[in-house]
């Protein structure tokens, strides 16, 4: 179900609409959204390729190898980091991850080898 918003009604909910905007902007500045992120490709034990994003790709691979949090990599350990690409913020990293995940295996390996 699609929810529609009434700008006038939503603005009246807050005492000052500009304060709300500034609060949200400050929250985003403190968050990881504006930090340098990495898109990474890891090779699993069964030779499949796993693509993800992280603030620290090497640390993320260690987490993949030591925990069972990721469903895909849970039974494909150990992972080996084969490619990283830096992005200036989280949004760009997500977009690039989505783009790379659409690639065929052949195209991903060509990206890794270049």
How many H/I helical runs? Answer: 5
Helical residue percent band: 40-55%
Average per-residue pLDDT, rounded, comes to: 84
Q: Tell me the β content.
A: 15-25%
Shape: globular
How would you classify the helix and strand content by structural class?
Answer: alpha+beta
H/E series, N to C? HHEEHEHH
Largest sheet: 3 strands, antiparallel
Q: Tell me the strand order in the biggest sheet.
A: 2-1-3
* Count of beta strands: 3
Low-confidence stretches: 3-12
What Rg do the Cα atoms give? 19 Å
Oligomer state equals single chain
Descriptive overview:
- By secondary structure, this protein is α+β, with helices and mostly antiparallel strands.
- The chain is 46% helix and 18% strand.
- The protein has five helices and three strands.
- β1 (37-43) and β2 form a beta hairpin.
């Amino acid at each position: 179900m699609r929810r529609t918003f009434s700008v006038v009604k939503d603005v009246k909910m807050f005492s000052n609409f500009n304060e709300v905007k500034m609060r949200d902007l400050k929250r985003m500045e403190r968050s990881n959204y504006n930090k340098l992120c990495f898109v990474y490709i890891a090779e699993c034990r069964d030779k499949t390729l796993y693509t993800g994003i992280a603030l620290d790709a090497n640390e993320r691979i260690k987490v993949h190898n030591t925990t069972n949090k990721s469903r895909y990599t849970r039974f494909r350990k150990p992972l080996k980091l084969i490619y990283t690409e830096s992005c200036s913020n989280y949004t760009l990293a997500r977009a690039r991850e989505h783009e790379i995940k659409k690639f065929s295996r052949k195209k991903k390996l060509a990206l890794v080898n270049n």
